[in-house]
Amino acid sequence: MQISMTVNGTDVTSEIEPRVLLVHYIREVLGLTGTHWGCDTSNCGTCVVLMDGQPVKSCTVLAAMAAGHDIRTVEGLATGGTLDPVQQGFMEEHGLQCGFCTPGMMLTARALLDKNPHPDDTEIRQAISGQICRCTGYATIVRSVQWAAAHPAGPGLEDAADTEVKA
Ligand code: FES
Ligand code: FES
What we know:
Elements: E1 2-7, E2 10-15, H1 22-29, E3 48-51, E4 54-57, E5 70-72, H2 85-92, H3 102-115, H4 121-127, H5 139-150
Parallel strand pairs: 1-5
Antiparallel strand pairs: 1-2, 3-4, 3-5
């Protein structure tokens, strides 16, 4: 079957088998291997991408179900060579160790901040509750998202009214 969708702002059209999962379509057909594939049982959340701005586990979505939708992967976070504040936050606050969970965590954080620019600790933890990190203990991930919330325009350009990091 033929499917078309927008991926990171680019229209793509492909011939695929109807059984192909979105995670495999993204990785193997489009070659965007920043989206990781961890469990295939909908448990780990490393495969999270944004579909129309909402985080989805791409191992639970058929590529055909994404037809006509807007998909954003980790490769689409940076714009014009500038890191998204979420990516910068993960660097500043050491929000990763092995990095396997990181693409999905950052996309969930981006979706959260787009909806709620000032999330508290509990709201951040709720947002990432469907995703597993085996390395960090989550504390630095939460701090990374808080950093991004405090620097919506990137490093050095924080909104002075929003610099307080919520605990
Ligand atoms: S690979 Fe999708 S939830 Fe683990
Ligand atoms: S940084 Fe290793 S699983 Fe999260």
